Amino acid sequence: MAKQAKKTDDITASEQPLLAHLFEMRDRVLRAVVAVLVVFLVAFYFANDIYYIVATPLMEHLPEGSSMISTKPAGTFFTPMKLALMMSVFVAMPFILYQLWAFVAPGLYAHERRLVMPLVISSTLLFYAGMAFAYYVVFPLMFAFFIAVTPEGVSVMTDIGEYLDFILKIFFAFGVAFEVPIATILLIYTGATTPESLSKKRPYIIVGAFVIGMLLTPPDIISQTLLALPMWVLFELGLIASRYFLRLKVKQEPTGSEVVSSPEQPLDSEAEMDAELDRYEAEQRAASKPAQEPENK
Fold this sequence. Notes:
Layout: H1 2-45, H2 47-59, H3 75-91, H4 93-104, H5 110-148, H6 160-177, H7 180-189, H8 195-200, H9 202-216, H10 221-252, E1 254-255, E2 258-259, H11 270-288
Antiparallel strand pairs: 1-2
Helix pairs in contact: 1-3, 1-4, 2-3, 4-5, 5-6, 5-10, 7-10, 9-10, 10-11
């Protein structure tokens, strides 16, 4: 009986932390949903104005006498409402990411917390930068190209629902594409690869950027190039930033049985940090190489 009671107490004790985590996750999700709803209530009042701003890049290039149309009876209501809801999610994204950060932070080490928060902030800013780049650079060039190649006798009258779906895909594609530096930093920081290895694979990465641009954008060379070139530039920036994060890593984490750096033995000079970083990269490359079998004599 005593053993059974002890086993029951152990199960109950293990279930309570799980329930506490689930309750905390529920509270975090509810806070994120409430934040989106609060922003939506404000954005819905200005839904038509927001749609006009979003549709401006197309309407500025429409031929004289042309306009956008709605082919569905309720399209003039639901389309701006859908845009207001999506904009609410985008606007509330920093608060949503903060709730995610607050949920996972207690389970991270101190050096991981110092890394994650800057990455969360920078990834949010990069996503917004990608959307802004699409709106101010890509849309004017892309719609000017589409209007210019319109066949003779064809009237351009774009449905507002089709237009919204189209630009949301472009916004999302450029927002995700601008996260390339974050992905590069994480791959190098976790030891999956090294800056030297990625530098050698640069030609393949450039080709891959153009392939991704082809898949994520409409079938025109302008938008494809305008997506591929920023991805390449951001990849190069990610390589530069990754060396800085690696220096922090080798100063804060132990390698094997010896400590890379400690408060008593800081790496103050740039030369010392570069030498330590080179040693760390060499160890990573040696660890990633498969063990070679001895040759038969």
